[in-house]
Amino acid sequence: MRRKSAARTPMKCNLTLLSQYLDNELDFETRAAVDSHLAECLPCRREMADMKGVDKTLVGLRTRYEAVSPDLDRRIHADVVAPRRRSRMARISSPGVGSLAAAVLIFLVAGHGLPFQPSHNGPTTASVVRQRVAQLTAPLAQSRRASAILDGRTTPSVDETRFHLFRMLYE
Amino acid sequence: MAVALEVALVEQLRRQEDDAFTFIYERHKTQIFNYLLRLTGSRELADDLTHDTFLSAYEALPNLRPDSSLGPWLYRIASNRFRDSLRRKKIINWLPWKDTPQEHARLACQGGEEHLPEREAVQAVLDTMKPEYALCLILRLVEGFSSEETAKILGTSPEAVRMRLSRARRMFKDAYEAQERCENAHEM
């Protein structure tokens, strides 16, 4: 059946139109035609009631989610994340980089102590983390920038993206 | 998710950054796993297909278009992995309810005792339907995608989805009633 002529000529029984009616996918004119048809057609009213019953039954499944098994998490980590990190580490650990890293570590330990070592005078781990979080949140605290990001007028930086990711995951 | 954030995330994913992949996995794994669980009715199969889905997603990341929407993209991969598994005939015959009583009983129990009979029946009916109709029904009514989104996921037109959905509703109702008659006859 053609939709444009639906309101002018008597409608025949049409399963797809009934389904679209239920999904609110029809324009006003066609919806009115379906309403008129339903008022006169008992089989279609029954069909509509059945469809509503099916929807109610299946929509009920939405709230029932099972947790992913820890085994799947381990497999994903082993097959995707770990190989990627290993290859990255292999690239980083070239001879020159390794000796430079060792020299920096010796310098830090011998001359200044470990950077995150708890100390009454120096920064504690917690204060360093707080400082880092403050650095990350500072751009978002500026409402103009935050609204520009949320409206899609500007692209967030890598740090802003990471900050959002962690908030969305853990809050 | 904000559009700009999703765009930034897609950009990071295209560069195959670990943080972005881990985030995507953590955010979507439960949805994808449960989608596949409803399609297969088997926790083990759903586990394997979820694993394959994210592995395929990771491999396809460099080809991910900047304007892609991550959710439907992952559902498309999951649907394709499900179809592939059917083609390989590993699960071409969806196991009838009575062949896997322990697995289905366990699935039903995890939804809460009060929903046990209904959940059993729904899963059993979905198992008897043709895969393309079950896919359409689950994507539209359970996962809540629009006809347009479902069409993109299934690689077909929105009109085809609407037609398939209307038939799938009727098929589901008929199968549900047939099962009820069967159970009543069995009890008598």
Task: Provide a descriptive summary of the structure in words.
The complex is a heterodimer of chains A (171) and B (188). Helix content of chain A is 69%, strand content 0%. Chain A is mainly alpha-helical. Among the domains of chain A are: 15-63, no CATH class; 116-171, no CATH class. With 188 residues, chain B is mainly alpha-helical. The termini of chain B are far apart. The interface between A and B is large, with 51 and 58 residues.
Write the layout of secondary structure elements.
The complex is a heterodimer of chains A (171) and B (188).
Chain A: H1 15-22, H2 28-40, H3 42-59, H4 70-92, H5 95-112, H6 125-141, H7 143-150, H8 158-170
Helix pairs in contact in A: 1-3
Chain B: H1 3-14, H2 18-40, H3 43-60, H4 70-87, H5 101-110, H6 116-128, H7 131-142, H8 147-154, H9 158-187
Short descriptors:
heterodimer, A: 171 residues, mainly alpha, 8 helices, disordered N terminus, B: 188 residues, Rna Polymerase Sigma Factor, Chain: A, Arc Repressor Mutant, subunit A, 2 domains, 9 helices, elongated
Task: Write a concise synopsis of the structure shown.
The complex is a heterodimer of chains A (171) and B (188). By secondary structure, chain A is mainly alpha-helical.
